[in-house]
Every structure is written in structure tokens, then in C-alpha cells.
């Protein structure tokens, strides 16, 4: 191992990145300018796909102990139920959203990182960086003002919407601020119908969303109609939150004991490229968007899971840098674009004004969500199990087997089967029938392939699945030459 990685930012994305890289044997240093973890809820939900990926770290059980399962989401207008989206039929080992405050997510991740022997260097701030083909030279300032020069092979900016790394790279954060102001209240509520589900109300005066957190604690979010000037953003009072519940909610809900009250506006922005040579961006440093659907933190954590195995294989000298590292921006950039588009549409629908337009919206939405395939597609999108990489440069050109997953799709997870990609080495997994031709393949590519074959995902097929659980190659049974050709594209073989 001749590479090390500096991670800037110790929120959920940076911590996930550090854990995944460290378990693969990559030396990491993680710095954070804040003196301590956030004590606010911020992001609230860990979705099914993120939980599946956390299974590889054996962390999910700790999250389940601290979180609350949400089994569905509802859209209402007054007493009318426009849509009910159930997560319970999602084809995942975790068919629910796990409601857990970001403060708890960060605590669980940091404590796990500490247990691995890695600690966050707090009150250490990146002030400058210079990248060249050989590495990255960073200037770090500690709490006493002392400057340190730190050399790393790679640098990953996980330092949020106001990213210093992004500014140092001179990258534009392209996008706009939505023309509306919002209020947020983490409060205790009584009288909430369907208390274990997410609720969104489309009211004539604006939108209202209620998210369960734990026990009687909920998050309430509402837009302020007619308030578009960012200078008018203000922290609400408990009385304002109650007034929103009375006006837009189903009735009978009482708010008390505020934990966090805040005003905010919504930015939708993204960089054009998540990579600049030896420097990468992940999470909010690369993309920010509406909180609709609770996709932000999950998208960032999945950025980390996508990049970590690729960078680890390069750092270990097992694979050439390209096409692995360039695929990070292509894959995750497309996901970021899709999330921005989807959350933006959902937000604009929710705050649509005008009686006739609202009536048309409600009738159309009710009709569309009355169709079972639409509800299924919505549930898969919210829980993020439908995320895939259909246009990835890493996809092979095999012959898809009817009934099995295509290249770029998430490989189905079988109940009771060990997670793909667990362990301390990033390896690809073969889902195939065993025959004599596989033995020399495993011998030649032993550094890249899991020695244990798994049953085919569908009769008559062969699948090569990446360490992050997505299909790299889908082809017909016995096409071992295609597997070898795919591995030859990325492997550095010992002579």
C-alpha cells in the first residue's frame, strides 16, 4: 500500500468514506473544522438502499436499535387521501425508511470509526490545496492557528454546501435558489394519524410535511406563502408551527416541547464534475437540493460507497486508475441530476398555488397513484433501491438473460445471504453455476474475485457483481471468456 487519503469533513458522508476506505486497508486521515458533532436532527431518514450498504459494514443493527421504522408515506388534501405509498412490499432486506436524527447517525458512524482505530482530527481546517499528477499538498490550520503541510495521494471533499475543497478547485456550484421560504420545527406532537408513516399535506395555502422521529417527537416542515426574499428567512415560534398544523393538517394535532426551530430556503445546485484529478467531491459539496423525500444524506453516503471500493483497488495496486475513477463522476453525477430533478418537481407540486391548478393537480395525482405500478415505482424511488448505473463505462456488453438484472442494476439481495462486498478486500462476486472453467479464472484473478461462487440470479445466466452490489457484467451461462475480458480491462496482474 503506497497511497493515503485525506478526507475533509466528518459528517455522515466523510465518516462513511473513512470507514469504507479503512476497512479496505487504505490509510486515511479525516479532519473537521467543527469542534464537535452536530446536535441537530438535520437529515432524518436512512433509506433501504443505504441500510443494505451499511450491512456490509455490520453497522445496520446498531442503527436499527436507535431508529424508528417508517412503513409508508401519505399525500393528503384536507381529509382526502390522494396517495398512500407503502414501503413494506419493496424487494429489500430493509423494506422501510429508518427514521433517525442525523446527530445519531453521526454518533454511530464516528464511534464505529473510533473502534477501528481512526479518530477525527477536530478543529482542523483546510485552508489551501495544490494538486498535481503525483498527489495533493494541503495546508491545514488547527485551533491554535498553527499551519501544517500535509501530503496525500488523494483528497476527498466531504465538507458540505460551502465546501472549501470545491472553492479551492474553482468549481462552479451551478443552480438556483427556489422562490420560497420555509420553516422547520422538531417538536413533540399529539394526535398524529398514522404515526409510523410520513405525511405530506397539499393545502390551498401551501405544503405541510410531518416526519416521525422517535416516540412523540416529529419534524414539521411548511412553506411560507408569499415569502420569497431570502432576507425574510426566520426561525419560527412554536405558535407558528401550531398555526400551520391547524390550517394545513388533518386537525386535532397539538405541538409542544420544541427541540429545534429553524427557517431555511432551498438551493438546488450541483458541480459539473465530481472529480478533478486526484481530488474528489462527495455529498453536499457536490450537490444540494430540496429536502423532499429525504434523499440528500443518503445520496451523499452512497457517493462514498461508490467511490471507496474503486479508490481502494487503485491504492492497493490491484487496478489501474482508469476507467474505475472516472466512472465515479459518470455514475454519481447522473444520480445527482436525477435527485435534483425529482426533488425539485415534488417540491414545486407541493407548493403549487391557484385553486384551479391545485384541483387539477389533486385529481391527476389521485388517478396516477391509484395505479399499483406507479405506487411501486414511487416506493422504489423513495427507498432508493431503483438507483442504478445503466450508462456506466464499467458495464460489460454481455447478453442479458431474460428475468435477471441488467448491467448497472442493483443485484437482488437474497434473505439470509451474506452481503456482497463485505470483508477487508474489495472483490467482485460471481453468481454462476460452477464448472471446470471457473478454477483457472479464480486463480488468475484471485485478487479481484471472491473465491465463493453464488447461485445464479436466474437460470441460464452468469453475473459479475461489483463490491457495491451493482451488476458489472450480465451474460449467458458459461461465458467465462467474457468475465476474463471484463476483468482484463481493469486489472493489474502480477507477472
Furnish the topology, listing elements before pairings:
Layout: E1 5-8, H1 12-23, E2 28-32, E3 45-46, H2 48-55, H3 60-66, E4 68-70, E5 72-77, E6 80-86, E7 97-99, H4 102-115, E8 121-122, E9 125-132, E10 135-141, E11 147-152, E12 154-157, H5 164-169, E13 174-190, E14 198-203, E15 206-214, E16 217-224, H6 238-248, E17 254-270, E18 275-276, E19 279-281, E20 287-288, H7 296-315, H8 324-350, H9 355-369, H10 372-383, E21 429-431, H11 438-444, E22 461-465, E23 471-476, H12 480-490
Parallel strand pairs: 1-2, 1-12, 2-8, 5-14, 12-19
Antiparallel strand pairs: 3-7, 4-7, 5-6, 9-10, 10-11, 13-16, 13-17, 14-15, 15-16, 17-20, 18-19, 21-22, 22-23
Helix pairs in contact: 1-4, 1-7, 7-8
Notable features of this structure?
495 residues, alpha+beta, FAD/NAD(P)-binding domain, D-Amino Acid Oxidase, Chain A, domain 2, 3 domains, eight-stranded mixed sheet, six-stranded mixed sheet, 12 helices, 23 strands, 27% strand, globular
Amino acid at each position: 500500500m503506497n497511497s493515503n487519503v485525506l478526507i475533509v469533513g466528518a459528517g455522515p458522508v466523510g465518516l462513511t468514506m473513512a470507514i469504507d476506505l479503512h476497512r479496505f486497508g487504505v490509510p486515511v486521515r479525516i479532519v473537521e473544522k467543527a469542534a464537535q458533532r452536530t446536535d441537530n436532527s438535520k437529515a432524518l431518514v436512512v433509506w433501504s438502499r443505504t441500510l443494505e450498504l451499511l450491512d456490509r459494514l455490520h453497522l445496520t443493527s446498531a442503527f436499527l436499535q436507535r431508529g424508528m421504522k417508517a412503513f409508508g408515506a401519505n399525500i393528503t388534501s384536507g381529509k382526502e387521501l390522494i396517495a398512500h405509498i407503502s414501503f413494506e412490499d419493496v424487494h429489500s432486506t430493509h423494506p422501510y425508511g429508518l427514521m433517525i436524527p442525523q446527530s445519531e447517525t453521526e454518533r454511530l458512524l464516528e464511534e464505529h470509526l473510533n473502534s477501528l482505530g481512526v479518530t477525527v482530527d477536530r478543529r482542523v481546517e483546510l485552508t489551501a490545496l495544490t494538486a498535481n499528477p503525483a498527489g495533493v499538498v494541503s495546508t491545514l490550520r488547527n485551533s491554535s492557528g498553527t499551519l501544517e503541510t500535509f501530503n496525500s495521494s488523494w483528497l476527498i471533499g466531504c465538507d458540505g454546501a460551502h465546501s472549501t475543497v470545491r472553492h479551492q478547485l474553482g468549481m462552479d456550484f451551478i443552480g438556483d435558489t427556489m422562490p420560497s421560504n420555509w420553516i422547520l420545527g422538531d417538536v413533540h406532537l399529539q394526535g398524529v394519524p398514522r404515526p409510523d408513516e410520513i405525511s405530506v399535506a397539499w393545502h390551498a395555502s401551501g405544503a405541510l410535511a410531518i416526519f416521525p422521529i422517535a416516540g412523540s417527537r416529529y419534524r414539521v416542515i411548511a412553506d411560507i406563502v408569499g415569502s420569497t426574499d431570502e432576507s425574510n428567512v426566520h426561525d419560527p415560534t412554536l405558535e407558528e408551527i401550531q398555526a400551520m398544523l391547524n390550517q394545513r393538517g388533518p386537525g386535532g394535532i397539538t405541538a409542544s416541547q420544541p427541540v429545534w426551530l429553524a427557517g431555511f430556503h432551498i438551493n438546488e445546485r450541483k458541480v459539473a464534475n465530481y472529480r478533478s484529478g486526484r481530488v474528489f467531491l462527495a455529498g453536499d459539496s457536490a450537490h444540494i437540493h430540496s429536502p423532499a423525500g429525504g434523499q440528500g444524506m443518503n445520496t451523499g453516503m452512497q457517493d462514498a460507497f461508490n467511490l471507496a471500493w474503486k479508490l481502494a483497488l487503485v491504492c492497493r495496486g490491484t487496478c489501474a486508475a482508469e476507467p474505475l475513477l472516472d466512472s465515479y463522476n459518470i455514475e454519481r453525477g447522473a444520480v445527482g441530476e436525477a435527485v435534483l430533478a425529482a426533488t425539485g418537481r415534488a417540491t414545486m407540486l407541493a407548493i403549487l398555488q391557484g385553486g384551479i391548478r391545485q384541483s387539477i393537480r389533486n385529481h391527476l395525482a389521485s388517478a396516477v397513484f391509484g395505479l399499483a405500478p406507479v405506487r411501486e415505482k414511487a416506493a422504489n424511488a423513495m427507498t432508493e433501491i431503483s438507483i442504478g448505473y445503466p450508462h456506466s463505462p464499467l458495464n460489460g456488453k454481455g447478453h442479458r438473460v431474460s428475468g435477471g438484472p441488467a448491467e448497472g442494476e442493483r443485484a437482488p439481495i437474497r434473505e439470509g445471504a451474506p452481503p456482497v462486498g463485505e470483508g477487508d478486500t474489495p472483490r467482485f462476486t460471481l453468481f454462476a453455476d460452477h464448472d471446470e472453467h471457473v478454477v483457472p479464472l479464480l486463480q488468475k484473478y484471485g485478487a479481484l474475485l471472491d473465491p465463493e461462487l453464488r447461485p445464479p440470479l436466474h437460470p441460464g445466466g452468469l453475473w459479475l457483481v461489483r463490491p457495491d452490489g451493482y451488476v458489472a457484467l450480465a451474460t449467458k451461462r458459461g461465458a467465462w471468456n467474457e468475465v476474463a475480458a471484463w476483468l482484463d480491462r481493469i486489472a493489474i496482474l502480477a507477472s
